Amino acid sequence: MNISVIAWRNIWRNKRRTLITAASIFFGVIFAAVMSSMQEGSYGKMIDNVVKFYSGYLQIQQEDYWENKTINNTFELTDSLLQEVHRIPEFTGIAPRLESFSLASSESLTKGGMVIGIDPEAENRITRPEKWIIRGRYLHPGDSGVLMGNELADYLRLDVGDTLVLLGMGYHGINAAGKYPVTGIFKYPLPQFNKQFIYMDLPLAQDLFSAPHRITSLVLMVKDHYYMPAAKKALKAFIRSSYRLMDWKEMQPELVQMIESDRTGGKIMKAILYIIIGFGILGTVIMMFSERKRELAVMVSVGMQKTLLSGILFMETLYIGVLGVAMGIGASIPINTWFYHHPIHVTGEAAKAFTDMGLEPVYAFSLMPSIYYNQAITVFALILVIAIYPMVKTMRLNIPEALRT
After folding, report:
1. Helix (H, G, I), strand (E, B) or coil at 140
2. Contact call for residues 61 and 246 (beta carbons, < 8 A)
3. Parallel, antiparallel, or unpaired for β 163-169 and 133-136?
4. Could you give the 3-state DSSP secondary structure of residue 394?
5. What CA–CA distance (Å, rounded) separates 101 from 383?
6. In this structure, what DSSP letter does residue 55 have?
7. CA distance 76 to 94
8. CB 94: neighbour CB atoms within 10 A?
9. Residue 59's closest CA among 77, 33, 79?
């Protein structure tokens, strides 16, 4: 008879012990899978907060712009550059921007703001600013008005239809000044946007800063961050020395560091969890071997080879691990799927803490396949290590002594 069949029958000779051991693996896998799903989902939401609200996954800039963000470090958007970008299938959105700091004023009130010239239609396909309008309307191509954050508008005591005065420095030191009607007020989940951002039509911004046909960045969007490496690799093939290609990780190093730090903490917690599970399985294996020592000695006495017997015990341990992992992953998939479609929304003081950090107050979940196969790999690695014990003890089994027990 095949040793795998014998091993499968053996583990069900003591159903309680098998189910208790499999249950410890089951609950450990569920906890680790759900925790990993929430971690990866939260990281994805953090990235979305930065990428889909503002920066995009990739940006093409003038090569000195990132270190010295002045209106002078701009470039002309050429048809040849656009054609090359449009050839890359991973991109789902492309939007030019002209960004510069300016003083925003109303009567005696003044506050610094970020003026962002955008193509209204292209920008709306990438970062969806129209979604966050709370008063007034979104920009149309050729509009002479502006959109501004609700906190900035409240500070300047402005509302839809009022006039905003902008004072700044234009291209090559030219004065930049203008009066613009407030077309709409927006409210992002991120407070820093509401305190600073002012949107206007791109040609209007180019006229304000005396920078015709020039932009500070070309913002590029892909479906999600898993598509970014391929898109970036394709872009690098034609980016010349006068341009610079930056991805969201380079533009947001603090976010990358925070994610990596949190991920390390999660790995430590899961390592502790699996160490506890491992000792639980090991205890069961030791007990199982001790209870069956006389039985094993009898089997060797009647002619069974110790190597064959070791293989049976190895298969028994492996089956218990497979059973626990299969049940754990099978139960965690619907849990994670539910929370993926119904994320946990944070309220009260906790929500305020999230928004103060510039994060959307929600616990999101992920359905990445690695969440599940990482748990399986980890448990199987534990099982392989633990299975060494009964194999070694069987090979060293003292038959006469075991028969007397």
Report:
1. coil
2. yes
3. unpaired
4. helix
5. 59
6. I
7. 15
8. 20
9. 77
Residue type, 287: M
Q: Which DSSP category does 343 fall into?
A: P
- DSSP class of residue 361 equals S
Domain locations in the chain as residue ranges: 3-50+255-404, 95-213
What's the token pair of residue 138?
A: 């979104």
Is the separation of the CB atoms in 340 and 365 below 8 Å? yes
Distance CA 268, CA 166 (A): 51
Query: pLDDT by residue (tens digit) across 73-106?
Result: 999 988 888 888 888 888 888 999 999 999 999 9
For tokens 């034609």, what's the residue?
238
Pairing of strands 133-136, 217-222: unpaired
Structure tokens at 215: 């932009």
Residue 160 is which amino acid? V
Rounded to 5 degrees, what are φ and ψ at 105?
-130, 155
Say how far apart CA 132 and CA 397 lie, in whole Å. 73
What pLDDT digit, counting tens, does each position of 202-231 carry? 999 999 999 998 999 999 998 877 778 888
CATH class of 95-213: mainly beta
pLDDT in tens, 32-42: 888 888 888 88
Structure tokens, 235: 């872009």
Residue type, 392: V
